[in-house]
Amino acid sequence: MSKKILVVNDETDINTTVRQVLEDKGFIVDSYEDPRLALENFKPQYYDLVIIDSKMPQMSGFVFYRGVKALDKKVKTCFLTASELQSEQYSDDIFSSPPPSNYFIRIPVENERLLERIEEIMAEVK
Amino acid sequence: MLDKGRSPLVILAVIVGIALLLSIFSYQYSILTSNKIRDIASQEVRSNARIEVHGLTQILGKQLQTVSALLQTLTPSPLIQNDQNQKSAFVLFNSRQNSTNDLTNFYMWLDRDGKIVWISNMNQSTYQKYRGTDLSYRPYFTVPKDTHKAYYSSLIDSNDKVPRLYISYPIINSSTGIFKGVVVSGINVYTLGNLLKNQLFPQFNSTIGLLDRNGIILYTNPQQYVGDFIFGNKFQSLLSSLLRPPESITLLNNLIRTSLQGYTGVGDILANGKMSTIAYEPVLVKGQYFLTLYISAQHNLATDVSALIDQQRYFSTIIIAIIEAVAIIIAFLVFSWNKRLATVVNTRTADLKTANDSLALANEQLKVHDKMQQEFINVASHEMKTPTQAILGYSKLIRRHPEKREVMMEAIARNASRLQRLTNDILDVTRIETQSLKLNIERVNLNELISDLIEDYRNEIEKTNKDIKILHEPQNQIIDVEADKNRLTQVISNLLSNAIKFTMKGTIRVTEEVKDGKALVSKEDTGPGIDTEIFPRLFLKFAAKSETGTGLGLFISKSIVEAHGGKIWAENNADHDGKKGATLTFSIPLSKLKEAKLRLRKSNDE
After folding, report:
1. Tens of pLDDT, residues B493-533
2. What contacts 24+ positions apart, CB below 8 Å, involve B72-78?
């Protein structure tokens, strides 16, 4: 059965390319540019992975992360980030303990490498 | 500081107080000392006077005793007992006179009827003259005749007008006890006085007085009062002319009255401001009160000492005053020095504080700058990496999806321009900061420029789903400005794209006008307005509120406007009809007015 991934990114082009790369690999992808809409339409116990843009104008990726975790405690997540400093900057506010660094996928990243990282994260046993 | 200001006065007051106490104490102490010294000196004068008067009294008593003894030894002589009026008897008298001639004038023999038999050392002629002279009325005859005892006279003026004292002894027949006459010795009071004077200790500054027991003056200086009654008018009027105050006369008279009762004593009399001690002692001859001797001594030493002490007192008072003045001056100097020091310290402290504050401020600014730098790196990296990622993603996908080739190519181009814009912005900032921003000034028709730009942005808005209208009313007046056309375009574009970015729905109104010799361009939107946190540093670097922006746009715009000699400012609109929004305005110099007017006329003519 195909794995389902939710992509949330305010940048249309990032959204489009990531979605296309994942769909080409056979994933079922939902994508949103507005994290508020994404939360409204979030389906608990449905997604295998949620890929979150760390920096969005409507809502920070980390706030969105908490929203998602409140709805679906077990869902796997990772961040797509263009910032230089992410985990250090936000860990105290958002996470009780620092998240594993491989939760952060730094862009720019080649499509193949992006897929590898995503598959790694999904393969990890919690 | 208040305490410091008050304490010098307190300390000065304490110094003055101590000095005052010291001067009072010193003054009192020197008065005490001077009184004590004066007392000691006076005591010395008194005891000296007593010693002198006692010594003189003893001498005088002894002399008179001798005279008395010589007289007494005459009476049992057979020559005299038997009335042998012959030379051998007279020799007895002569020899006695010779032995006491420093005191006695003569020794005299009176017969039982009081007539002169012999006076010592008479020559033939005087013998003839005085022999048989009747002196039977004189007390020196009558008293021994009646009492058969020795007689010591009071002062008597003799027949030769010389005042004398007399000592007489009766001649009593040793077997029958019959009175046979008297032997008399006459003592000239002047001689007596001189004798006393010679006996006085020469360095003892004193005068002598001698009274007989009835108060008759026997010796005094001046001698003209000899023979006068001491309480008589003549002497008393002399006293009242000499002695001040009158109480001193009363005191002196009382002293004399006491002395005339045969007492020994001493008393102080104040005469014309000078203290004198009068010591007195009776002269006794064979136990009988005969005369009273007085010695008066001035308290010169005491007065001198007193003057010296007064001088010392004034001197020490002056010294204390000088010390006090010096202490006050020193205290004053110390305080003013202290004050100056305090002022210097305060100034330095203030300087240090200012330096500290400015350092702290600089540090704070550095921190802010650091934070902004960090923010810029975050933003810039996001701004660079996002389009890079898009380009990277599309360029790989384009091969896999030839059917989406057009769309993807366009997306790649869009992201490439986004990267280019960012690159330009960063380059502009570098130019601004290195002051190498160059303007290519030319005449620019502002109306046209704005109209064209608005047209472009209207097309841009159509591509988004936003419901935004750009309002721009065409002007009658042609506004020409002196500007770099590309840079001016950059400023207006920045204002418009900001407005479009932050406005979800509403209107953007753009106006241009001429005011105070400058062109003003305003952009008013109905967006959320400028964040109050951002507002103070709106035109500074990295002041960004959007999630997709470097925060460089307005900084670059401001620098461009200012490079043209204009100004740029922002206001948040008053909240009306639930629409807030912000207005940004900038000014830019007009092209030369004359030409502008010409062109205006030309266009009207057309």
Report:
1. 999 988 888 888 889 999 999 888 889 999 998 888 888 87
2. B72/B150, B72/B169, B74/B107, B74/B169, B74/B171, B74/B183, B75/B169, B75/B170, B75/B171, B75/B172, B75/B183, B76/B174
Q: Which neighbouring-strand residues pair with B107?
A: B185
Pairing of strands B505-515, B568-572: unpaired
User: What mean pLDDT is reported for chain A?
Assistant: 84
Radius of gyration of the CA atoms of chain A, in A: 13
Helix, strand, or coil (residue B548)? coil
What is the widest separation between alpha-carbon atoms in chain B? 208
Chain-chain contact of A83 with B382 (C-beta, under 8 angstroms): yes
B73 Cβ partners below 8 Å, 6+ apart? none
Looking at residue B1, its pLDDT comes to 41
The distance of B540 to chain A (nearest Cα, Å) reads: 21
- Cα–Cα distance, B185 to B220 (Å, whole number): 22
Query: Which H helix or E strand runs over B569?
Result: strand B568-572
User: Do A13 and B400 make contact, defined as CB atoms within 8 angstroms?
Assistant: no
How many C-beta atoms lie closer than 10 Å to residue B603's C-beta? 11
Class of residue B217 by CB neighbours under 10 A (exposed 0-12, middle 13-18, buried 19+)? buried
Q: Is A13 within 8 Å of B414 when comparing Cβ atoms? A: yes
Burial of B555 (0-12, 13-18, 19+ CB in 10 A): buried
Which residue reads 């030379």 in tokens?
A: B87
| Each residue's pLDDT tens digit, B342-382 | 999 999 999 999 999 999 999 999 998 888 777 777 778 88
Measured CA to CA, the distance from residue B454 to residue B437 in angstroms comes to: 26
Q: Please identify among residues 69-108 of chain A the ones whose CB lies closer than 8 Å to any CB of chain B.
A: 82-85, 106-108
Residue B123, token pair as written in the block: 């020559």
pLDDT digits (tens, 9 = 90+) for B181-223: 999 999 888 888 888 878 777 766 778 888 888 888 888 877 7
Q: Does residue B544 contact residue B487 with C-beta atoms inside 8 Å? A: no
| For chain B, percent of residues with pLDDT exceeding 90 | 23
Q: What's the pLDDT tens digit per position in B308-330? A: 877 887 888 788 888 888 888 88
The B residues from 410 to 449 touching A (CB cutoff 8 Å) are 411, 414-415
Which residue is it, tokens 């507005």?
A: A34
Residue A2 burial by Cβ neighbours in a 10 Å radius (0-12, 13-18, 19+): exposed
Q: How confident is the model at residue B461 (pLDDT cuts 50, 70, 90)?
A: confident
The share of chain B scoring above pLDDT 70, in percent, equals: 93
Does A25 contact B at CB distance below 8 Å?
no
- Of all residues in chain B, what percent are helix, strand and coil, respectively (each to 5)? 55, 20, 20
Distance of alpha carbon A83 from alpha carbon A105, whole angstroms:
10
pLDDT tens digits for range B470-489: 998 877 788 889 899 999 99
The whole model's pTM is what? 0.49
- Report whether pLDDT(B580) > 60: yes
A63 close to B (CB below 8 A): no
CA distance B549 to chain A (A): 11
Q: B501, B546 in Cβ contact below 8 A?
A: yes
- CB neighbours of residue B477 within 10 Å: 13
